[in-house]
Amino acid sequence: MRKLAVCGENGKQYPVFLGWDLLERDDWLEEIKFPSSFGVIVTNSRVGSLYEERVSSFFSRQGFTIQVVTIPDGEEYKNLSTVEFIYKQLLNLDLDRKSFLLALGGGVITDITGFVASTFLRGIPYFSIPTTVLAQVDSSIGGKTGVNLPQGKNLVGTFYPPAGVFIDLSFLRTLPPREYKEGLAEVAKTFFLAGGEILSLLEKREQILSREEEILEELIFQSLSLKKKIVEEDEKEKGIRSILNYGHTIGHALEKVEGYGKLRHGEAIALGMMGEAILGEKLSITPSKVVDKQREILANFHLPTQLKFKIEREEFFAALRQDKKKERGKARLVFLKDFGQPIWGVEVEEEKIGEALSYLER
Length: 362
Ligand SMILES: NC(=O)c1ccc[n+]([C@@H]2O[C@H](COP(=O)([O-])OP(=O)(O)OC[C@H]3O[C@@H](n4cnc5c(N)ncnc54)[C@H](O)[C@@H]3O)[C@@H](O)[C@H]2O)c1
Hints:
Helix content: 40-55%
Strand content: 15-25%
Low-confidence stretches: none
CATH architecture of the largest domain: Up-down Bundle
Order of helices and strands: EEEHEHEHEHEEEHHHHHHHEEH
Strand order of the largest sheet: 1-2-9-6-5-3-4
Radius of gyration: 20 Å
CATH topology of the largest domain: Dehydroquinate synthase-like, alpha domain
Bound molecules: nicotinamide-adenine-dinucleotide
CATH class of the largest domain: Mainly Alpha
Number of helices: 12
Number of strands: 11
């Protein structure tokens, strides 16, 4: 088992435990301070049917009283109606401010549960039990919570770190191949930003695709460590944290145009990274060897590197304009000068982004 301590807001640390079959042992649990013995698991129908019983009996064995709130599965339910549904369920369960939530699921669940925790009764503690690669390496730490509005992704949210994160890698065994591979897009993104020796881990294609334990643990641990370093430096995204948005400006807009759910988040990010790399090349920022290497790595994981469909430009630009990172009428993008050398806050005209899209459509 490995452990990281992540520094959240106001210098308060929260622990991240990572290991195989974490919920089969309890030696790590004594390090956590739970505010009370009453907790509520928030999960979705799919993850709940697989793991709710395991998680609930794990905590019951430790003397906790555990209830469960289940929401439907899917990004389309990451919205304010679902938030209201969860509030109502929590009120029915008589939650008080010392009770805690356990977010059991992928990024949708950790985002929405974190948002509910940050606002219910003006804030109650929550712990994350992320069950997808994406949630384990990305959404579980850093404290960003939120939901989507019809106008765009994550337009309502808070910065609210969890009280602890429990990463049981064995959950990844049941993750369907498509969801597993899309998580690798966020892992690859982190490694592209880090550069150096660590990139060679991504060459172990077969071991990664067959989910070999040793390599998977290393990938997730390294990704988390890098994200920890960045979010500790800049929790509120006033500067360097925005490098984590590499691929996300174009990616989010594509995801929106395609309708949430059709193009998976990680697939949209892979396409977004390719679009932004090609744009970087056109702007003489990103060398073509970096673009080619990035394409090769993403394709190795069967992630999309080209669009299979034409994108309606007006819709795309409308989605882009909704992106909350856009300031003063221009999108601000992250580019790679090389692997390990990201630059951020580069203002780019819409029409240039449109050109990058044309290259992706070829
Ligand atoms: N807060 C952040 O910093 C941050 C960062 C990146 C992404 N996100 C958000 O994360 C979301 C995407 O997360 P995701 O890719 O985890 O999607 P997801 O939560 O929708 O999970 C993907 C699918 O896998 C299923 N699933 C989850 N764990 C499983 C398991 N162990 N076995 C079998 N099935 C399982 C889910 O039910 C779902 O159908 C997006 O909403 C994105 O905005 C947030």
